[in-house]
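Entry for the shared binder. Reason: the reviewer on the internal report wants the predicted structure included alongside the sequence.
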Amino acid sequence: MLQETPFFDIADVIRRRVRADPTARALVCAERAVSWQDLDSRSSQVSQALAGEGVGRGDRVAFLEKNGIEWFEVLFGGA
């Protein structure tokens, strides 16, 4: 018999890390680092901005960004 596996989206994973250790480094790019708390906050801002433009669950969003922390913020905010 197959066991049900709990579903986690990327927002759940980030928020679990925020609860566990909010000031720990989440991402490091060149000389810049952001904490899990900062990543969650910035990703939430992206998510809210997208929702404000009418983007909803299941919609597709395309974006172009150079490699860096902002890329992850947009990726996680749009997830």
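Summary line for the report: The mean pLDDT is 89.
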